[in-house]
Design brief:
Blueprint lengths: L2 H23 L4 H55 L1
Length: about 80
Amino acid sequence: MTTKNKVLLGILGAAAAGVVIGLLIAPEKGSDTRKKIKNTAGDWADSLGHLWNKGKKMAEDGLDEAKDKGRQAKHAADKLKENFS
């Protein structure tokens, strides 16, 4: 895991903790607070799921592009071998 990812996860964790603490000390009924926490956690889980899927798709696209470039390079190298053989 890169330093950039660690920092991002740390920020997200701190933000989540801040939201939960803020909800817990808010002067509301416990049942209302629990509903808010549940809804907020669900929203964050959905957002993280979408972010994960987007990152996965980008990684797959990058891998496909790298494979295509590798095939092109191999083809070019094979042509060079034929020309100099």
